[in-house]
Specification:
single chain; 129 residues; alpha+beta; GTP Cyclohydrolase I, domain 2; two-stranded antiparallel sheet
């Protein structure tokens, strides 16, 4: 196989570092394994972040997400681990990761984890007339 999963997240320079703007990425093919049964767990990951100096490069993100396919992980743990790795890679002003896991035994799980840089304040929403 020419491409392999990887834990290496790559970044590139933010083209507008003086502006607060939001990047939203939807990843509907996340899989990992249930640590209790070994059965696959499927999720859609929703990433929202306000970059500072760097943005996450999408091919490396795809390979990173793929790297969890054969790992056992509780939903809460894997969501927080992914957020931590992405924050470490690009050091955003703000980042939120929402993991919506598919039904298993009649139960849906959604885990939301956030990071906010201590010196950053969200801009106020603009109210138009």
């Amino acid at each position: 196989m020419p491409t392999q999963p990887s834990k290496q997240l790559e970044v590139f320079d933010n083209p507008q570092p003086d502006r607060d703007y939001t990047i939203r990425i939807r990843m509907p093919e996340f899989t990992c394994l249930c640590p209790k049964t070994g059965q696959p767990d499927f999720a859609t990951l929703h990433l929202e972040y306000v970059p500072d100096r760097w943005c996450i490069e999408l091919k490396s993100l795809k390979l990173y997400i793929w790297s969890f396919r054969d790992e056992g992980a509780f939903h809460e743990a894997v969501t927080n681990r992914i957020l931590t790795d992405m924050v470490d890679a690009c050091q955003p002003r703000f980042m939120r990761l929402t993991a919506e896991f598919m039904v298993r035994g009649g139960i849906y799980t959604t885990v939301v984890a956030e990071h906010k840089r201590h010196d950053w304040a969200s801009p106020s929403p603009v109210q138009l007339p």
